[in-house]
Structures are given as structure tokens and as C-alpha cells.
Design goal:
The protein has 16 helices and 24 strands. The chain has 462 residues and is of the alpha/beta class. The model has no long low-confidence stretch (mean pLDDT 97).
Amino acid sequence: MLVFERVYTDGLAQLSYMVGDSKAAVAAVIDPRRDTDVYLRMARERGLRIAYVIETHIHADFVSGAQALARQTGAELIGGRSDAYEFELRQVSGGETFELGQVRLQVMHSPGHTPEHISLLLFDSQQGDQPFALFTGDTLFNLDVGRPDLLGDGSERKMAAKLFDTLMNGYLPLGERVEMYPCHGAGSACGKSIGDRQHSTLGNELLFNPALREQRSEEEFVDWLLKDMPEPPRHYARLKKTNTKRANMDGPALPPPLSPQAFQEIAGQDGVQIVDIRSILAFGGGHVPGAINIALRNEFINWAGWMLSAERPILLIGESDEDVQQAIMQLYRIGVDDVRGYLRNGMTDWQNAALPLAQIGEWTVHELNARRAEADVQVLDVRSPGEVANGRVPGARHIFVAHLAEHLDKLDRDKITVTYCGSGYRASIAASILKREGFQKVANTPGSWMAWNAAGLPVQKD
């Protein structure tokens, strides 16, 4: 009997799968995340032996758990063909198969997102001799396709052309009824704008996916795909290298709760990153001097990857121990492992110890509109270039938050700097960076562009 289980990981918007046959008591796991307990638990509960652990490609957005899971279970580790791998695995070509009782997986070489990328056709002997599903990895998503620019070597046009060939000559001939199971859902930066559905069919994508529904030549497809491609998150290049090397099998850290005095002592050491995961409003009201605010919301893992160095130690501040442990796991999934401790009882113990507090002002969009033209105010838009192209607060200057620290010389330190983004989340990151770097008069705009538009306030379009 067919076993089909999907594991969705919040924050990463990542999808992994367990497929197999319950009667034969055998299964394969496709694209496992770094914390592998979920797959081991599923196998135990269903009485399954994990025979294969399969990577569709060398991932760039999370640390793979494939090596660890293969070692834990004795499974055979499978991947596409690449000289980049620095560990042992079975490298496969198109047409090779894996038998799982009545279930069978067949490899399709599907380059485009990466050169070694493979997809997996799923067969069930009780449902005919044709594949009924396709695991697409990062090649095809709901309403989107994988980005071809993550190699960072100028090969994006070549890879986009290969993606076109995979889609048109590999996927579409399979037929519209074939179900599609990707490696990511909405929120991942592995595509431009991935849709909300975590699975689809090739027929549905033909109707609604802009990459497939319009007739384009290969050259037209390449031009369309690469136009306005957003900058990849900073940690993607690091993780792509990490996933070619022999894995660190250690589990997530269990850092100690620290007294305010111990926390302050460690925070004063060179290179320590203080990360406050509380809400933007709580952070603005009072925080440890020098902290960066990356609030523990669904966006946390992406912006932690953008803003934090994996080479430097981290101290955490949260509302609760549970929040801190969740943040540690999220960081672990992207290879940010050196968490030295967290502030015991959060800001309550800090303030009760009479230690210094820094604050950030909070302006409503109405206050921002009323004061944006004042001589001592500079309005800073920290959204991505693509967002800014659709409109900004009149007179606002633009520095993408990910590059703010390198462009502080473009700002007047004597003025009140008011940050805004799409919702206030990135604006709080930016405001905390400014405060950390010595800007004395800083304010964030909760609600930001969403609230600005809701209030019907004026928009400048360049």
C-alpha cells in the first residue's frame, strides 16, 4: 500500500517527502531538512525501513539533513551527478529507478535551477504503468519556476535555457494529469513569487503558471525569467558550499540562560551579535544597546540568514524560553550554530538590574506624512528595489535593508531618520542597525507601506 507523507517546514517554506510501500515496509525520503527526528519518528510509527535518502539538488536555502539521515538509518544516499560533492553518495542519471515494493521512483535529469538537479517520477503498480506524480525539487513550483542564478558564476542565461528545455521537453510531455510536488511553497526565495499551493498538477500549471501558460521561444523565456530577478539572500552562497561538504552531525545547541550581568559581559566581547527576537513594538519600547531586532515571525529565518554572520557568536533575547528555543532551531536549519546563550527572563531581568536601555521611536503613517518634509527629518525606504519601483513615500531615499550597514555614509546622522518597509518588519531591522551604529534619533513606522496605502496617503512613482 502506498505511503505518501509530506513534511512542511515553516519559515523555510520547505517541503520534504517520505514515499514507500507499507506492505513491503520500505520507504525513501526526499530532500530532508537538517533536524531529521521527524523522519525517524514517521518511519518508527509506520514500521518502515528508510532504504534511500534522495537529494534533488545541492540546496542553497537550508542545511540538508540527507547525510545525517542516511547515517542514522543505513539508507543509501542518492544525488545528481556533480563534481562539487565532497562526500560519498551514489550519483545517478536519468532513467535509473528505485524499487519500493509496489512503488517505484524513476530519476529524470532536470537541469536549470542547478546543473545536477534531478526530479523523481512516482509510479504505483496498482495505478497503471504510467507515473502519477512528479517530485520537482526546485525546478517547478505552483505559479513559478526555480531561479537559475544561484551558481553566482555568470551562467544564469545558460541555466535558464536548460530550465526551458527541462520544462518543455521533460515535464510537459508527461501529461496534464500528473501531480506535482515541489521542494518549496510561498515565502521561499528560490523562486520569484511562488504560489500558495503546496502541490499542484502539470495541467493546473499550464493554465495558471506564467512560465508555462504563455507561448515563448527559448530566448524569450530566458529574457522573461531573468528580468527583475531579485537579489538572492546573502546566506544562499554559504549554504550552497556547506551542502557540498561532509556534514556536521551535531544537533542544535542548548545554550544557557544568562543573568543580565553575564549577558552584558559576553555582549561586550568582540564580534558578538545580539539578536532581539521580540516584536517590533516591544523592541522599540526598550532593548539592550547594540541589539538587532529580527522578530520571531515567519520571516525570521530568511532575514536572520540575510543579516547575521554564521562565523560570529550570537546572544538571543526573547519574550519566553519557548521563543528562544524556536529561534535556535530556526538558526540551526540555516547553519547559524554558535548561539552562546540567551537573556534569562528576557528584558524583565535586564531592566530590574538597572542596566542601560536603548529605545527607538515609533511613528504612525499619519505622523510620517505630516513631518516628512521637515528639514530635520530624513525618510528611509528599506524595501527591495523591485518594491520601490512600484511607488514610495514622496521624498524618501532608498537603501535596501540588507545593504544598509555598508551605506551609512549616505545618511545625515544629525537628522531624525524614519524607516519604513512593507509592514514595519524590515524597517525595525534597519532602525536597530542605525541605533547600533550610533544614530541617535531613529524611528520606525509600524504598518509601513501597507498602512500608508490603507490611509490613502500620497505616492511618488519614479
